From TrEMBL:
SUPFAM superfamilies assigned: P-loop containing nucleoside triphosphate hydrolases
Organism: Hydrogenophaga luteola
Protein keywords: ATP-binding, Nucleotide-binding
Keyword field contains ATP-binding: yes
InterPro entries: ATPase_dom, P-loop_NTPase
Protein name: ATP-binding protein
Annotated GO MF terms: ATP binding
Keyword Thylakoid attributed: no
């Protein structure tokens, strides 16, 4: 088996980096921001870390990456402020890893003087994010790219909206400055396509007018690469490329599920691996969906009733979860009276577990559209046949 365990998407990353850093006449909207959507576990974060960030850095950009799901206990603004603060601190620290990596920019190794109060960046009375990014661009004389993974987590709270407005202010302050030696560029990624699209299309949103794009899921070349890696190992049973590709699509283009299916194939006897492969992939796809829905089961009957109510509201979400009509719905589902305080506790748990999000005040939607679709498919199977 090959020891190379990473599948690189250099072409895709290079094209995206070029569109962002050196946009042509048809790509100028990237300067307003890029919002990249794709369902969970299809490799977005891996692509960002191992391909896109290196491609941006190879073209001279300074990249700051923030994952809003990295620490659910912290607010999005706290995570972003800390990432910016750490970047500035490294630039001021002689011999830091960041300074060494930026030697090509002729920054030297002695550290930069940025005249920024590090301890209170983005906080009341402290330096603003706009001031921080202006200083970064002015001192490094290069493009600064901020990548926020799971950016939809900023929606639904005043603090999250304030963060987005602060980032827009930073973008405008840097990019509108005559003779700026670099630009501030923003990439937001997430698993909820409709919410990310709204962040670029609704006039009230700070990044209205930015580019909304779909993440390109892994293709047949990835499946071929995975099979080639395994082919050199003695005694392994492998499906044909065409069967493996069909199975990968059944598994939702999720690389971890593909490996899981290949491991299970080794435990199956018989002479037709392709037939066994299709059964394995279909079974795993159903099991993955059940695992996603299990999180809602753990919240009890009221949790399942609240989830049903939210899922019925469509991708845009539903309001009135605590109103009389909704309370009557929950009471009917669980067979006992329900009050608004009980529902609020369940909703708070769902938000804390990142199962649901609040895109705007009083409106809630399922965080992962794939989970919502799985639930809908299950409901369709359980529904009684139509009467003739």
């Amino acid at each position: 088996m090959s020891t190379d365990s990473l599948f690189h998407r250099d072409l895709y990353a290079g094209q995206m980096a070029e569109q962002l850093l050196n946009p042509g006449p048809l790509d100028e909207s990237t300067r307003s921001g890029v919002f990249l959507s794709g369902i969970r576990r299809v490799g977005k974060t891996t692509f960002l870390r191992q391909d896109l960030i290196p491609a941006l850095e190879a073209r001279g950009a300074l990249v700051i990456y923030v994952d809003l799901w990295a620490d659910p206990a912290k607010s999005p603004s706290a995570l972003v402020n800390e990432a910016v603060r750490q970047t500035l601190l490294q630039l001021q620290t002689p011999g830091s890893a960041l300074l060494k990596r930026l030697r090509g920019l002729r920054l030297g190794a002695a550290g930069l003087s940025l005249d920024i109060e590090l301890d209170r960046i983005g906080e009341p009375g402290g330096s603003t994010l706009a001031q921080a990014f202006e200083a970064l661009v002015a001192k490094t004389k290069t493009n600064v790219v901020l990548i926020i993974d799971e950016v939809q987590q900023t929606l639904g709270t005043d603090e999250g909206q304030a963060l987005l407005h602060a980032l827009k202010a930073a973008r405008d302050a840097v990019n509108a400055k005559p003779g700026t030696p670099g630009r501030f560029l923003f990439i937001g990624t997430g698993s909820h396509k409709s919410l990310l699209a709204e962040m670029t299309s609704r006039r009230a949103q700070p990044f209205a007018g930015a580019l909304s794009a779909s993440y390109q899921v892994l293709g047949k070349d990835f499946v071929q690469w995975q099979l080639d890696r395994l082919a050199s190992a003695p005694g392994l049973t492998l499906p044909s490329l065409d069967a493996a590709w069909e199975g990968f699509q059944t598994l939702g283009h999720r690389p971890e599920e593909l490996l899981k299916a290949l491991r299970q194939l080794q435990q199956v006897g018989g002479t037709d691996p392709d037939t066994a492969w299709h059964i394995i992939c279909a079974t795993l796809a159903g099991a993955a969906a059940d695992a996603d829905l299990k999180a809602f089961d753990d919240l009890g009957e009221l949790g399942k009733a609240v989830f049903e109510r939210i899922a019925s509201g469509g991708e845009q979400g539903i309001s009135g979860l605590f109103g009389a009509e909704s309370l009557a719905f929950y009471s009917e589902r669980i067979g006992s009276a329900v009050d608004a305080s009980q529902v609020q506790k369940v909703v708070d748990k769902m938000v804390g577990a990142q199962l649901i999000i609040r895109p705007s005040h009083g409106v809630y939607t399922i965080a992962d559209p794939f989970v919502r679709k799985v639930w809908q498919d299950k409901q369709a199977l359980l529904a009684p046949p139509p009467k003739h």
